[in-house]
Design goal:
This protein has about 230 residues and is an alpha/beta fold. The protein folds into 2 domains: about 120 residues, Response regulator (Rossmann fold, 3-Layer(aba) Sandwich), CATH 3.40.50; about 90 residues, Orthogonal Bundle (Arc Repressor Mutant, subunit A), CATH 1.10.10.10. Helix content is about 40%, strand content about 20%. The chain contains 8 helices and 12 strands. The strands form 3 sheets. Strands 2-1-3-4-5 form a 5-stranded parallel sheet, sandwiched between helices. The two termini are about 35 Å apart. The structure holds calcium ion. Calcium ion binds next to loops.
Amino acid sequence: MKVLLVEDDVALARGMSEAMSREGMVVEHCHDGPSALQRVHDTGAPGAPGAVDVAVLDLGLPGLDGLSVLRQWRSRGRSFSVLVLTARGRWSDKLEAFQAGADDYLTKPFLMEEVVTRLRVLQRRQVGLPRPVVHQGPLSYDTVAATFSLDGQPLVLTAQEQRILAHLITRPGALVTRDELVRHVYARDFDPDSNSLDVLIGRIRRKLAPHALIHTERGRGYRLQHDHAGPTPD
Ligand code: CA
């Protein structure tokens, strides 16, 4: 999950970025309104390289306030989920944020766990999953706790492995391109060589053994699917 964090409090943003990274999220930080607009203008189209999945948006920002940023994102058709995070706690402030296109609202001070949980819920709704736990054969993924289990046993994964598998299982049966996976595993300015993705996929496959859940579409990408009956001739 790629998170765009727009927050001008540098210490707060650093702490939040670290916490979200520990939770398996790829975080980019903008510290003022104009750069948040530019960031989304450059690469914000859904499916574009570097597109964000969810944004955490402070309202009091230098250059351009958060509500104006949000209105401009929406008027340009950007549909990613936005969690507004602000010290302003009056109902009229919340109403105004929702009217500008916010999906959720949290008042400072807040618990980081709550931010992370709300972002995961927003992302789950964004990809259209109705239930918090996703199953694919022997593999289960709890989208709120961000934990996997295989055959009912906890599955231990590194942060990168977790990001890849979470992305695949929340799009069951769909072809996920290599570019798309790379975007969700690495930060925008990191240019991974193509080999490292294969290495990561190989490691995940070994952890999922003996179940063959990740299928390679040669030259295109990967698909996570549990096939009950094995390959069916047709
Ligand atoms: Ca602020």
